[in-house]
Specification:
Elements lengths: L9 E6 L2 E5 L23 E3 L12 E6 L14 E6 L5 E5 L2 E5 L7 E4 L6 H15 L16 H15 L7 H29 L2 E4 L1 H4 L11
Antiparallel strand pairs: 1-2, 1-3, 2-9, 4-5, 4-8, 5-6, 6-7
The chain binds zinc ion (ZN).
The site of zinc ion (ZN) has 6 residues, from loops.
Amino acid sequence: MQPLDSEKSLIKISHCNKDIFGSSVPKHCPLCGQSLVYRKLEEAPVSIPSPFVNGHRERCSFLLKPTTGTFLSGYDGSSDLHVGITNTKGLVYNYNEAGVHKAEHGWEQCVNIPLVQPDMYGLLEQWDLYLEQFSAAEIWLPHRYDEHLHNCYTYALMFINCVLSAQKQQPMNKSEFTEKFVIPRTRKASKYITIYKEICKNGFYTVDHPSQEGGTSTVGRLTS
Ligand SMILES: [Zn+2]
């Protein structure tokens, strides 16, 4: 298996009535061998951006990654996930059975949900202090940890709700936050993982062209 850069875009072209995914723009169709000149607009290569970012470069974000390994290596679709919140300097605050950690590395391949608009200067200025004070609270001591009821997600969501309440906004419960923000991104990520793994294995990955099938291809929606 040839590992690819996890932050690199994948490429989709259409030929032989199929969508063909690869790691770069091919000169020849991998199916029929025909030289590709991309004369028609519908044949033009489309870039599929990676859903993963280096979390240490994302400020004021909610991050999600597998507890062990990475999404593109070792993750089987049902492995445990771990979440954290970044400060403005790329430190990832996260909570587990050993308490709150401020990670300088280990979050290089994450799904991220930005929590602050770039023009919210007041909040950006306060963010690191908020996060530090919030994390120092007694409820995040190691013995308070519970795998199901008081975990990394409890910690991250409670912090988000503290920020929302400071801005006089309504809090969100776990299912609201998950459905509205997390699931759309993990769905996109899981499609990317499928394509990525096939490309690593075979060099390219094909799906029947939606217009030829008369149905909608789930993979095709990755670009939307
Ligand atoms: Zn072809």
